[in-house]
UniProtKB/TrEMBL annotation:
Protein species of origin: Myotis davidii (David's myotis)
One GO term of the biological process aspect: synaptic vesicle uncoating
Protein name (database record): Endophilin-A3
Bilayer-crossing regions: none
One of the record's GO cellular component terms: presynapse
SUPFAM superfamilies: BAR/IMD domain-like
Stored InterPro entries: AH/BAR_dom_sf (IPR027267), BAR_dom (IPR004148), Endophilin_SH3RF (IPR050384)
Family the entry assigns: Belongs to the endophilin family.
Origin organism lineage: Eukaryota, Metazoa, Chordata, Craniata, Vertebrata
PROSITE patterns on file: BAR
């Protein structure tokens, strides 16, 4: 869902806001200005619109941060590590089938072909095991990426709260 949104965003650039908060902020600013600063509701709408625009910027920053620190590395793990493991497992299965076939037909197939099939099977097994081991060794890095994601989420919510708390006090005073 994020990918099409980013594609649209890259096409439309920063001049247009994609965040719902930004669209709501634009609407509030427009109608707050139409009502005028003399109107309590109009000035409250204008203040709220400004806050919503700020929240849209914070959310946009959060989206970009999450994509760069969490989604892209996760996609990289999928595209590289998991695909490599899958490739080696498919190769291992093919070589296992070849070795089993040649083992069952001892006497019809020369011993050197059976030995060669066994060596290829063992080689593929070792390579698949190594790839899986390397993937599991990256647990610390993957947990670190989750920690970055949580940090970004916390920062987003703290910034949002920092925007909304003064607005709430201002509206209560009105």
């Amino acid at each position: 869902m994020l990918s099409p949104m980013l594609k649209i965003h890259n096409q439309r650039k920063a001049s247009e806001c994609l965040q719902p908060e930004g669209l709501l902020g634009d609407c509030m600013l427009k109608y707050g200005q139409e009502l005028g600063e003399d109107s309590t509701f109009g000035s409250a709408l204008t203040d709220m619109g400004k806050a919503m625009k700020l929240m849209a910027e914070v959310k946009e920053s959060f989206d970009i941060n999450v994509k760069e620190t969490f989604i892209d590395p996760l996609q990289l793990v999928h595209d590289e590590d998991l695909n490599e493991i899958s490739h080696h497992l498919k190769r291992l299965e093919g070589r296992r089938l070849d070795y089993d076939y040649k083992r069952k037909h001892v006497g019809k197939i020369p011993d050197n072909e059976i030995t060669q099939a066994m060596e290829k099977f063992e080689e593929s097994k070792a390579m698949a095991e190594r790839c899986m081991f390397n993937f599991l060794e990256n647990d610390v890095e993957q947990v670190g990426q989750l920690a970055l994601f949580i940090q970004a989420a916390l920062e987003y919510h703290q910034q949002s709260a920092n925007i909304l708390q003064p607005l709430q006090r201002k509206l209560r005073m009105r």
